[in-house]
Amino acid sequence: SEVTDSMDRTLRLAGKAPINKVPSIDDLSMGNSLIVYNTPNSIRTIGIKLITNDNSETPTVKMDEELWALYKSKNYDELLIKVDRILLNNSRTAYAWNSKGEALFMMSRYKEAISSFEIAIELEPKNYSVRARTSIGDVLFHLERYDEALVEVNKALEIDPEYAWGFGGKAKILRRLERFDEALDMINVALKLNPELGWSYRVKATVLRNLKRFDEALVEINKAIKLNPEDESFYAVKAAVLRNLKRYDEALVEINKALKLKSQDAWTLGFKAKILRKLKRFDEALVEINKAIEIKLV
């Protein structure tokens, strides 16, 4: 799924990883300016308002920072409580509805999340028709409703045809639909629009891997790692590509880097076991499999 940390602008955006699901390697594969936080999947908008609208309340900087801090710390229950207080005071506060949608998404309350995003769009279409529409597409993507997700992202791109995150999201969806050549075209557009999106290089690497263009995939995932060496999923993708190239010792090094950053990940442990099995280190592989099973059972 998809992302490099950068801070260029003045309001906040953030990303998320897949929810309530052990990802496959395919999983490893939003007026004012913005501070952009890219984290492993797609852009999030927390407590922000981009264009002044008399029908809605503009968040203060303090509130923006407060909502962002709760989101970053994964304190979604408290975030939801604060957003609901804002809405109790003014139910037409679009940024609060959008932030509520993000919190609900992270809490796996998908139907409510979509409803919240739709309200934000209705209240302030100038602000949220692109970003919230893309978020709806992201919810549908995680629900594996890929055709519907594609419709939503296309709506966003019709409004803003230079929205790099939208093209990146579209590439992810097309890849899941096994439309790999189209996915590659879309991720190339995203990277042309914004070459600093580390997660887009990861998406490109996974698409190239699907196309069995492993050497090219390795080049792209190295670009992602250079942009954000703290994203464990990038090393996992690199390990997968190296395994495809039958470079198993190097793959083991990369998967260990991923586990150093995130040790309690069932998928990564399971993939390490696959690499160890290729190296005929069966006892060690069994240890990693048992760790993965234990995590999944918790």
From TrEMBL:
Family annotation (Pfam families): TPR_1, TPR_16, TPR_8
Family annotation (PROSITE patterns): TPR, TPR_REGION
Record's keyword terms, sorted: Repeat, TPR repeat
Segment forming the signal sequence: none
Alphabetized PANTHER family for the sequence: CELLULOSE SYNTHASE OPERON PROTEIN C, TPR REPEAT-CONTAINING PROTEIN MJ0263
Record protein name field: Uncharacterized protein
Species this protein is from: marine sediment metagenome
Lineage: unclassified sequences, metagenomes, ecological metagenomes
